[in-house]
Amino acid sequence: MRSNYILLVIVGLLLFGVVSVAAADVFTAITSEELRAMIERKEQHLVLVDTRSYGEYQDAHIKGALNIPWARLEKDPSALNFPKDSNLLFYCSGSS
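Now predict its structure.
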């Protein structure tokens, strides 16, 4: 099974706009409520990835999220070496 990628966009520190990537280049929108439900039901294979800087991550982050800054991902995509059945959820501080 292919990894499912979900890109989350957080405006400021609020979950505001959320986008999911179900396949390589396919995006669909999900709401912050849907994200909250996924977290609350402890959805299997869910991996939260905070792509902000280490300092921003230290200030505040979603409980259980891993910090892999976007700059690192651009240089080293192998940082996303997770099992193929993982549902990766990415979030950052804005939607530039």
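The two ends are 31 Å apart (CA to CA).
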